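Let us work through a complete example step by step.
Step 1: write down the sequence.
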Amino acid sequence: MPPVTRRTLTLTAAVAVALMLASPALARVGPGTAALQIALRDRGLYKGPLDGIRGAATVAAVMRLQRSTGVAATGRLDRRTRLALGRLGRHLPGTRTVTVGSSGWDVSWLEFMLAKHGFDPGRIDGRFDRRTKLAAVGFDRFAGISDRCHAHPNLFKALRRTPTQRSPLRLVWPVQATVARGFGIQGARLYSGVKLAGGFGTAVASAAEGRVVFAGRKGSLGLVVELKHPHGVVTVYGHLGRIDVRLGDRVLRGALIGVLGKTGRTADPALYFEVRVRGAAVDPIRALPNVET
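Step 2: predict the structure and record it as tokens.
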């Protein structure tokens, strides 16, 4: 068989394998794939979403890595491919204690899982910094883990077995507005709430009966109100144009707490709306009725 034909068949076979691995029926979803995407992104080989889905873009990036490092271009993650990823391909989750300054596959896994559980690790990049440690400590507290000094194997085990949370309360929409930005991992960061775009000065209501535990200015969110509700639920309302409640006030479900504005870091009038359950940020949309995004 002429060499050119062999090369053509080899390329065809590789593409067929990539398509098979990326097919919806066989797609694998999980933190291991997210760690792979983070390592590939660090090498400039992957620009897709950090979603933990082994789709066509992820498989293609693996094959680019394999071809550039002399590994057989199968699209599969084998030992040689993991070694080719460098430091972000090393250390499986839970095989060591992670401290500030650590980096590796396990750190990427940890950051992704913390974000999926609603604890913001900062930039998800395979590097354990102080922001990541704060998120790990927050999850330790949530899960009842006593050792909160480092990211230890027990933390990895707890992340594996703990289901993601949702609000135990049914809420009402704080404003009738368009969902301009949804909850979840976007780019390489966790967006912990939703952004609701509406008209300047639109009334903002309490999503449930509760008590005001914060009313004032808070960083990039501008003017903020935080309400504490039963079952460990806290709701956060940011970018307000005006605050109409005071610290300690009891407010009823649907009561006025302020008006929609553009304080803080937002280009247009909007409400930042966040829901936390015992410290874990959860998707507010899942607790709201008649959802239309």
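Step 3: interpret the result. The domain at 91-161 is CATH 1.10.101.10 (Muramoyl-pentapeptide Carboxypeptidase; domain 1).
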